[in-house]
Amino acid sequence: MGTDTDTAKPATRIQREKQEAILEAALDVFSQYGFRGSTIDQIAEAAGMSKPNLLYYFKSKEDIHAPLLARILDTWLQPLRELDAHGDPLPEIQSYIRRKLEMSRDFPRESRLFANEMLRGAPGFHGVLHTDLKKLVDEKAEVIRSWMAQGKIVKCDPYHLIFSIWATTQHYADFDIQVRAVLGKERGGEGRFEDAARFLDQLFLHGLKPKN
Predict the structure, then answer these.
(1) Average pLDDT score, the chain
(2) Which strand (E) or helix (H) includes residue 112?
(3) I need a labelling partner for 62 at 20 to 30 A (CA). Which of 23, 121, 158, 174 fits?
(4) CB 46 within 8 A of CB 25
């Protein structure tokens, strides 16, 4: 099934659908309660199936959590992968910010699950953080440095620029209830993401634009 080592028989369509239903339910549960606070019983209830039926597809909570984390990290890194070294720097950075905000709007559960994993010491990500993630950020930091060397953007620390974009965009997913409460009914609707995009354009693009 989902985590068996015996791969002689590929999963049937129904089995794949069941596995996806479990993962979808688990995303809801994990994003609300975190890994430690979640149980197999909660996930089974959210998936609309019995605990024994769920355990037929996934043998443990860890076996459900791991593929969710792998998917989320891949999704989360895609916008950074798309930062084009041959593009115009300011539009490239603007596009990156917009894609990150869109992810906060469209994938709030995934963002909260990612944040929860970081807060508990990232045991599910530990190896990847020091390998794949670091390699990608190092690569894009060099791209940003090259833009600085060409005088296309002002000089700054490229790593902290990336961290700042992560922090300001993911805030709108991880602290959404706070954002909506502070903005109130008139400004706390879907338009809050476009308002955020305009502000972040001003913050980052004006700050990075060469002065001469």
Answers:
(1) 91
(2) helix 108-119
(3) 174
(4) yes
Give the confidence band of 9 by pLDDT, cuts at 50, 70, 90. low
The pLDDT confidence band at residue 5, using thresholds 50, 70 and 90, is very low
Q: Which phi and psi angles does 136 have, rounded to 5°?
A: -65, -45
> Tokens 């049937």 identify what position?
12
Which distant-in-sequence residues (6+ apart) come within 8 Å of 47 by Cβ?
Answer: 21, 22, 24, 25, 26, 54
DSSP secondary structure letter of residue 100: H
Residue with the two structure tokens 């950075």: 93
Return phi, psi of residue 152, to 5°: -85, -25
The pTM score is 0.85
The C-alpha atoms of residue 151 and residue 6 are separated, in whole angstroms, by: 56
d(CA 83, CA 50): 44
Q: Which helix (H) or strand (E) holds 193?
A: helix 191-200
Residue 104: is its pLDDT beyond 60? yes
Q: Encode pLDDT of 162-185 as tens digits.
A: 999 999 999 999 999 999 999 999
Do 153 and 88 touch, CB atoms closer than 8 A? no
CA distance 205 to 36: 40
Q: Are 61 and 35 in contact (CB under 8 A)?
A: yes
The residue to which tokens 């354009």 are assigned: 201
